Amino acid sequence: MHNTLEQVFGYPRFRPGQEATIGAVLAGRSAAAIFPTGSGKSLCYQLPALLLPHLTLVVSPLLALMQDQLEFLRRRGISAGSIDSAQSRDDASDVMARARSGELKILMISVERLKNERFRNFLQQVPISLLVVDEAHCISEWGHNFRPDYLKLPDYQRQFNIPQTLLLTATATPKVIADMQAKFAIAPEDVVTTGFYRPNLNLLVEPVRGQDKRRRLVEWMADRRGLPSIVYVTLQKTAEHIAEHLDRNGIQAEAYHAGLPNEQREAIQQRFMSGQSNCIVATIAFGMGIDKSDIRNVVHFDLPKSIENYSQEIGRAGRDGQPSDCLVLANRDSLNVLENFVYGDTPERDGIRHVLDELQAAVPEGQWEFLLGPLADQSNIRQLPLKTLLVQLELRGVIAPRYAYYAEYRFKYLLEPEALLERFDGERRDFVAALIQTSTRARTWATVNFEAMYTQYSAERNRVVKALDFFQEKGWVELESKQMTEVYSLLATDFDSGGLSAELHGYFTRHEQTEVARIHAMLEMFATERCLGYRLAEYFGDRNAPERCGHCSVCHGHVARLPAPPELPALVDKNFEALCSEFIHRHQQHTGNAPSAERLTRFLCGISVPLFTRLKARAISGYAALEDYPYLDVRTWTQQHLPG
What we know:
Blueprint: H1 2-7, H2 18-26, E1 31-34, H3 43-51, E2 55-59, H4 63-75, E3 80-83, H5 89-101, E4 106-109, H6 117-123, E5 128-133, H7 153-159, E6 164-169, H8 174-184, E7 191-193, E8 201-207, H9 213-222, E9 229-232, H10 236-248, E10 254-256, H11 262-274, E11 279-282, E12 297-300, H12 307-314, E13 324-330, H13 335-344, H14 349-361, E14 367-371, H15 372-379, H16 383-395, E15 399-413, H17 417-422, H18 426-438, E16 440-441, E17 445-447, H19 450-457, H20 461-474, E18 477-490, H21 497-526, H22 532-539, H23 576-591, H24 597-605, H25 610-615, H26 631-641
């Protein structure tokens, strides 16, 4: 163990917690490493992978993180690979061949890859020594960033006969740790936590009224000009506005969020990493897997979503051990925005019922095929909660995923059809001629007609897709695939739709309450009279942090009394007719029914759901008119005005 550390990785000694974790894994036991961001969790699987007899399978939610780690392993001559959606079929096949032959020591995948039946069949042919789950808090419904597909990992471990598991995370509360432990049968002594207190981070909470936040941000950043900094905001449009505002005030800043094109995001990240750009104004899309050690400032312009998110985001500062400032410009103004995100993710009971009815309608077919987008539209459930619903149905033994395929392929000729045909002869030429002839060509793109290829040429879908992949690799066509069709087996069909939809709605409602409580726990922590460093560590179950760090705003004598949000006019004085009649009318026209109180509340609070896109709800007067009011107050007010 120590030889490998020095000879392969070039480190003279282990960092805190690493030796205990690696020792447990090499002794054949499952373990969990709960270390702060940037304190060497990855080594806990990289080193054992070299000493274990078979493959180490790493499940990670972050593509960028996978690429960084693969690069690190390659530089050390360690045979590692990944399979991801950005790869060509040949590259993926090459990685699988290396895994089969035993040459590959580490294989990194996303959890979604395990839904693919072909990939699961491949894994059953390969002996695996260790399953590693990165960002393992995603397993727990009590954790933040809960990922529904992670819930199935314990089943996959049994399915592939993987003898042991290693869980890695930087943010897990005692409740989440207990959940992780139970799901993977990890002994208490093999849960290694190194504490959450970071002595070099100055945690500062400053109460600021909404209208003063921009001015205060400029003052703060002006004193720290040129130092690598991240400013976190909640909404994409805020990221744009604040970056512009800083720029206008002489502080060069760039906005970063999920709404930007991929290349642009990568270029911004690259400039920040290389030091060409020093200030990023970002939604939480930024920072995952960022390995920049000299970030000196993290500012929360808007409140973070939870204490876990706060901990993860400030964890990007000062990884080099040098002092770094973490400031929250705190008030209660944006509280409703955070809560509305939560309420918007709870499906309506009718929506759940719609999904169950669709499922039962597929019984005669023997399997259930659907496109996630259209199913989300028809059931009026956002895509992430819809995925959670599907996993809940799996865990209840109602359905099981079989495979997924792209419903539509289209291609653009980079070589004229005649020239493409000349590259082949005999039967292959006939096949390519049939493909060219049956594909409907618009001005630029030709759409593949799989049915015509099968009826006219007996060509299986698989052969057509392989040929198109080959053409793309040769640079003869540009290929695009879209509309991923999911295929599930039906395991139980005799359930009571009404009872099951009520049970599932109850599950989502409990989750909603947990998330809202999480937001309030964070506000309470920011307004604490005790040392912030201690309170943060305590939340994660770490009792060893100093009770007074001496370098947070509370230790400096500044307890944050958070200003109340601006006083709002009473809801009782609002005109229900004026705000809702146009929406009710359009809803009735489109659906044949009057909207429920829940749907009206979402309209008035500006919470987007799939149906609102079809109704063009944003353009209807009254949309988001009450977004500054608490969701539950608006719902009560709406219920009072609806008949019955």
